[in-house]
């Protein structure tokens, strides 16, 4: 099959997500937004979930969703199924990044990170699995972090929340395999998102902070959101039909340094 490259994105003649319905959280910017574009371009019906604002992409429906609220999840899944008749794919991308050592991290901050990054995925999967099962199976992709594979200094709560995603992904995969539901995760390192840009800009010396980040990545640069979206799309598609329970680093080689 012929494929071409344009703007760093692989364009395929085949529509991998034709007749598939996907819900993507954390959808307004960065990795979530690029994932929506990718699935939409490849023929999928996409629902963009976020706390506020509207996703201005033709054919993409927006859903207001607080990922830490159980009732919000129930209503969001119901809206998707009512509108599209099914749900095949869940992309758990919503998350927050905050720094702090164990002594600097308040209990409030700890709970905020655990609730937003980890409990949200538990709630999302619990709400979505019956609909995906009803559709005959499908795929769940959780967005973790390289810190879920290797701890990072001064990020005790964030690292804990992302490590939980890695373990939970494996457990979910075992529980759901018999339902033809595959569960995998991507673990990005530094990606040029609003989250990372804000963190760099908050540093006392932005250039020095970025240089330190670059030094951790053998590829020698910060990643792009569309590079992570490409891996998410692969894991959500039938191209990865014999993969489940995996947490895949998308990290410019950081995890092997």
TrEMBL record:
InterPro entries: NAD(P)-bd_dom_sf (IPR036291), Sc_DH/Rdtase_CS (IPR020904), SDR_fam (IPR002347). The keyword Oxidoreductase applies. It comes from the Bacteria. Gene3D superfamilies: NAD(P)-binding Rossmann-like Domain. Pfam families: adh_short_C2. One of its GO terms (molecular function) is oxidoreductase activity. Keywords: Oxidoreductase, Plasmid. Belongs to the short-chain dehydrogenases/reductases (SDR) family. This is Short chain dehydrogenase adh_short. It comes from Sinorhizobium fredii (strain NBRC 101917 / NGR234).
């Amino acid at each position: 099959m012929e494929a071409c490259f344009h703007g760093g994105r692989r364009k395929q003649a085949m529509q991998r997500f034709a007749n598939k319905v996907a819900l993507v959280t954390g959808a307004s910017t960065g990795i979530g937004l690029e994932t929506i574009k990718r699935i939409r371009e490849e023929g999928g019906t996409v629902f963009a979930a976020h706390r506020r604002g509207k996703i201005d992409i033709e054919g993409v429906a927006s859903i207001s969703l607080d990922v830490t609220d159980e009732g919000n999840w129930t209503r969001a899944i119901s809206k998707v199924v009512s509108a599209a008749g099914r749900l095949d794919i869940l992309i758990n991308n919503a998350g927050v990044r905050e720094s702090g050592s164990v002594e600097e991290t308040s209990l409030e901050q700890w709970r905020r990170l655990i609730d937003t990054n980890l409990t949200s995925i538990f709630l999302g999967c619990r709400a979505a699995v019956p609909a995906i099962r009803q559709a005959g199976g499908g795929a769940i992709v959780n967005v973790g972090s390289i810190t879920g594979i290797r701890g990072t200094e001064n990020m005790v709560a964030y690292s804990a929340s992302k490590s939980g995603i890695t373990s939970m992904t494996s457990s979910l995969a075992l529980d759901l395999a018999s339902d033809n539901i595959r569960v995998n995760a991507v673990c990005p390192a530094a990606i040029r998102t609003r989250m990372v840009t804000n963190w760099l800009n908050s540093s006392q010396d932005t250039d020095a902070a970025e240089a330190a980040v670059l030094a951790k990545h053998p590829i020698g640069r910060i990643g792009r959101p569309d590079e992570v979206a490409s891996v998410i799309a692969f894991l959500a598609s039938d191209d990865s039909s014999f993969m489940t329970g995996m947490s895949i680093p998308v990290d410019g080689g950081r995890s092997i340094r």
